[in-house]
TrEMBL record:
Functional note: Lignin degradation and detoxification of lignin-derived products.
Catalysed reaction, written as an equation: 4 hydroquinone + O2 = 4 benzosemiquinone + 2 H2O
Protein's name in the database: Laccase
Segments traversing the membrane: none
GO molecular function: copper ion binding; hydroquinone:oxygen oxidoreductase activity
Xref: Pfam families: Cu-oxidase (PF00394), Cu-oxidase_2 (PF07731), Cu-oxidase_3 (PF07732)
Cellular component terms per the entry's GO annotation: apoplast
Bound cofactor: record note: Binds 4 Cu cations per monomer.
Compartment list: Secreted, Extracellular space, Apoplast
Listed cofactors: Cu cation
């Protein structure tokens, strides 16, 4: 078995800068940190740095600007993040408060995924055969699978609470390949933030977190003092997709005020509201409830209108090669706009960009699908199933307003895709099902209080429209946060050019930047 390495970093916005030293982790990402002008500290290997060599180290230096809330860090190399991750919590500045009553306690609740095998061996075998990887054997909460698994029922994570108090639970989905429903038996949750951006408070009995997303909730302990399960299980939108059909639990454990605690002899109450694994309506309802707390600045004058398809595909196998893809002689693939992203191996994209090194990437990623088709139709032509492998970037002028349609496709299978952009937050203007219609669907745009996130769960057989301002120079990876999909090529990168002067330009690389 592989042990889980996770920890909690708590940062204050009053700190002018932060340094985190990493040793032999290949590449470590501080997921959601804007990294203004410090793309060298972003973390994904072969994008903003070369891997940290065994025995080597690299100090990540970055400044936190205008962010507070729950983010996280994780390895960004192959499937190492299956067990290497932790919370990264940014608290308000000194003498500042939360936009809600101060909670009695704060607890990070990190959802993870566990294999009874080395996860690197799991993905290497899948890459060898071209088939899908073996699914995980368990989910975890703060490193423990919980009472419903025989291996860990004596070490289930316990969250101690007191009757009448309100706790701030900071949920993080660090699972590798599963979106997750979360609920707490007999307790309501009030959502107050997602992806380190505050929201209008709304009360729910169910959360849905895609990998990479965080959700902060207030929970008032207003039930009889005993033990209650916190439970999480998979949300699976793909058709005929193998998944981990287990449920992880932690225990919300009231202090009874008596001489001895309840102990494990008291069976915790189980949630009645945990949705079925394929309950897309529950996932949709949760996403619809998230709004920014106040009016935000959304731009109606847009410089870059982009339309990216996101989905799966198939590669033909080489002659004489036996492959385990869904069709004869095929391997699984994935792409954006029919380009299956290939990570370079001789240099990082940011280093090659900064020093103008040729031959590492091209800047001709298509703004629109090369071929328009019925993206969510039942019978997409097999001629469209095979993407083109390439390392293509899309250039953006500094300060340009970008509006991007992310459109799921039904190739192989439609699926909810959590799309994450490094170095940026964005507003989600609208989401919907079917093919995006620029004439009709624009009427659904929220120009008043759209949610701000760094990871959007693009609806299965549907679309999402996001907007951001390209105000952070560098090379920024955009990818599906289901790691099996990024392994297959569901990624691209934006190249944001320098603006005018030092404050609109990428900083020089640090002296200890790992080299290939």
């Amino acid at each position: 078995m592989t042990s889980i390495v996770w920890s909690v970093y708590t940062l204050s916005r009053s700190w002018p800068a932060v340094s985190i030293n990493a040793r032999c982790m290949h590449g470590v990402c501080r997921h959601g940190i804007r990294q203004i002008r410090t793309g060298w500290a972003d973390g994904p290997e072969f994008v903003t740095q070369c891997p940290i060599r065994p025995g080597g180290s690299y100090k990540y230096r970055f400044t936190i600007q205008g962010q507070e809330g729950t983010l996280w860090w994780h390895a960004h190399s192959s499937w190492l993040r299956a067990t290497v991750y932790g919370a990264l919590i940014i608290r308000p500045r000194e003498n500042k408060t939360y936009p809600f009553a101060k909670p009695s306690r704060e607890v990070p609740v990190i959802l993870g995924e566990w294999w009874d095998a080395n996860p690197i061996d799991v993905i290497r075998e899948a890459q060898r055969t071209g088939g899908g990887p073996n699914v995980s054997d368990a989910f975890t909460i703060n490193g423990q699978p919980g009472d419903l698994y025989k291996c860990s029922n004596k070490e289930t994570t316990a969250i101690p609470v007191k009757a009448g108090e309100t706790a701030l639970l900071r949920f993080i989905n660090a699972a590798l390949n599963h979106e997750l429903f979360v609920t707490i038996a007999q307790h309501k949750m009030t959502v107050v933030a997602t992806d380190a951006s505050y929201t209008k408070p709304f009360t729910t009995s169910v959360l849905m977190l895609a990998p990479g997303q965080t959700t902060d909730v207030l929970v008032t302990m207003d039930q009889p003092p005993t033990r209650y399960y916190v439970a999480a299980r998979a949300y699976v939108s793909g058709q005929n997709v193998a998944f981990d059909n287990t449920t992880t639990t932690a225990v919300l454990e009231y202090d009874c005020g008596c001489a001895s605690d309840f102990g494990p002899k008291i069976q915790p109450a189980f949630p009645a509201a945990l949705p079925a694994f394929n309950d897309t309506s529950a996932a949709t309802a949760f996403a619809a409830g998230i709004r920014s707390p106040d009016r935000v600045k959304v731009h109606e004058n847009v410089d870059e209108y982009l339309f990216f398809t996101v989905g799966l595909g198939l590669f033909n196998c080489k002659p004489g090669q036996l492959c385990a893809g869904p069709n004869n002689n095929t391997r699984f693939a994935a792409s954006m706009n029919n380009v299956s992203f290939v990570f370079p191996q001789t240099d990082s994209l940011l280093h090659a960009h900064y020093y103008k090194i040729p031959g590492v990437f091209t800047t001709d990623f298509p703004a629109y699908p090369p071929v328009q088709f019925d993206y969510t139709g039942q019978n997409v032509s097999q001629a469209l199933w095979q993407p083109v492998p390439a390392t293509k970037l899309y250039p953006l002028r500094f300060g340009s307003v970008v509006q991007l349609v992310l459109q799921d496709t039904s190739i192989v299978t439609p699926e909810n895709h959590p799309i994450h952009i490094h170095g940026y937050d964005f507003f989600i203007l609208a989401e919907g099902f079917g093919n995006f219609d620029p004439k009709k669907d624009v009427e659904k745009f929220n120009y008043v209080d759209p949610p701000q996130r760094n990871t959007v769960a693009v609806p299965v057989n549907g679309w999402a429209v996001i907007q951001f301002v390209a105000d952070n120079p560098g090379v920024w990876l955009m990818h599906c946060h289901l790691d099996v999909h990024i392994t297959w090529g569901l990624a691209m990168a934006f190249l944001v050019e320098d603006g005018y002067g030092e404050l609109q330009s990428l900083e020089p690389p640090p002296v200890d930047l790992p080299m290939c």
